[in-house]
Amino acid sequence: MRQQLDQVLDLGDEVLASLLAEPELPRQLGVLRRQLGESAIEILQRRLQRAVGVRRWRGHARDYTVRRRVILVLAPYVPHPPSHGGSIRSRVLLDALVEEHGHQGREVHLAAPVQTEGDRSAAAELASLLGLTFHELPVAGAASSPARKLFCWARGRSELFARRWSPAAPAAVRELVDRLAPTLLVADSSFVLPLVPTPAPTTLLYLHNLESDIFARRDGQRRGFGERISRWFEARGMASEERRHLRRATLAVTVSERDAELARDLVPNVDVVAVPNSVDLERLPFAPPRREGPPRLLFVGGLDYPPNREAVTELVERHLPTLQARHPGLVLRLVGRDDSGYARRFPERDGVELLGLVDDLLPHYRASDAAYLPIRSGGGTRIKILEAWALGLPVIATGIAAEGLAGEDGQHLRRFETVEQGADALDDVLAGQGAMLAQAARGLVEEHYSHAAATAQLCEVVARAVGRATSR
What we know:
This protein is of the alpha/beta class.
């Protein structure tokens, strides 16, 4: 028996990996344990871990299970098609996981809630496209109520995080973790943190935003006392969730250096890497607008997201009258998901076109003279700005809208904070500055914000995280 153990230890990784699928292996491990003792099993355990990652070693022969390396991703939605900022970030992450890990028999699994048949079809298409395995999670839980908020806040938790999930969802994730025994668990955004089990496998946090910062910061919006109190408690609960999971994570990823510093403020010794948002340059060829007639402005963003709702309201009610006074016939085009019908409050406004969710954004970028973004809240970095830059559409935006991006005012975009500053910036763009901004901005995106660059960085991050998991 000792000779058999020595022979196993001498095998190469690939040969040993091929033997791990043998149905008799659990019984043979039990025999080794009984005849050679625990010390021999510990030696064999370390050898198998180096080869393919042994994730579970329980005390009885019938419970010995050997797993090849598995990555399980928890997502708050089905990230396909990649039609908004969050889904674009998630898709780049999945591309990196499949590129770095989805080969040589290794597995990538994605778990997300399915709200509609459209979600189910999208999940099947994504799984086929990337060669991953999809697992459906229970849909969102109960609607918000004052009692539910008070219950969560009294426990120092975020009601907004909890509201997204059915009470059955954490149990479903626990069952997945027990069954798959993943080498690495990836939490795709703060919104899935309530699903991460305790104890958890080695965990990588992919933080699209530090949600606690979004709710805690003063954003210039006029809010009633009740809303201010609600946001304070939500920020407190979100910070508690983010801090707890940052402490437990082997590695964290943010989309900007500012967000990385915010993560360090929560947990000073956290290992965090900034990987910027990105765009697909092959899909977004550079073609600056060359239009005639009245100016056309573009705002792209889902109106189910509060920072976008606030920005569009300010744009229509405060900026548009001044802009149209300077440029008669000016048209504002609003593009993005609006399931709540929020934009219906603007139907009588002259010069406002409500397009909702569209299949292809490119024609709308091409048909516009500038992206105009009076965004006062939110976090991370705006993929809508990167798309406009890549295509050659001049960007006029507030400081918060362009936060975390390397663009310089007057070189890559025009910044404004007041209505008059925004109108002056549009005057300059239409007078000829737009062509210079577009050229410089495209170069900036090519250098720092391409999908290829982001995927390469995320591959390195995944390799580090998996390496730490298999060395434990």
